[in-house]
Design brief:
By secondary structure, the chain is of the alpha/beta class. Helices cover 35% and strands 16% of the residues.
Amino acid sequence: MTDEDQDGSEEVGAARDPAFLRTVRPILELYSSYFRPEVRGFERVPEHGPMLVVGNHSGGQLPPDVPILLTAWWRERGEDDPIYTLMHSLFMSLPGVGQTMSRAGGLEAGPHQAEGVLRNGGILIDFPGGDHEVFRPWSERNTIDFGGRTGFIRLALRTQVPVVPFVSVGAHETLVVLSRGEWLAKRLWIAKKLRVSVVPLVLGPPFGIVPGGIPTFPLPAKVTTELLDPIDWPARYGPEAADDDEIVQACYDELTEAMQTAMDRLAAERKYPIIG
């Protein structure tokens, strides 16, 4: 893939602006500091892309895992490192939000954008669990739950890039998810229109129990994030493996098991929820 798509359209991720990131980074650093973040494992990350960085998604409607990882990444590797984040189309379509997120490296989730970044040598952050995982119930806060979604596995195999898993604990203690509301999402026309699989109910200040679309003030939970050893599937499989369901499932199981093992270890370090 060249710098421009075959139809001559703008390069995927061209709106990303390192100068803008240097301007807003202090604000994001201040926000992230509220969660007393600890980010480990940068010594395991390859020196350059392409690579697919895959994490568990936590924190409901205002997930802190994204700014915590990105501000740490910029501190370690600089804002010029070509790192992008896939985001839900609903979030990217909000007035004034989409353009700002694009300047920060946000991309509307989709195969064209994802593959474009990786084939151009970029670094792509993906949260495969999406809205399904980010609104998992409080009792499952230390569980990896991608909902069986395997598109990211096929992407990594098809583009022949390594996968760098990362795990966060604590981010899902910034609010209390009472219910995903998947049953309601299946019945509401608007949920299908907005391409959301959940209509959650959450508990958090200052409003108490509210629908997941209403922001709550995040509880001051300590968040610990760890980047794990890269998984080099291209060393074992060629791009044709992306169409082999058995290989794709084996890769999915390998990745989620490694992430769950890491999450169990990090969760065991915490004596109490929120306090850490």
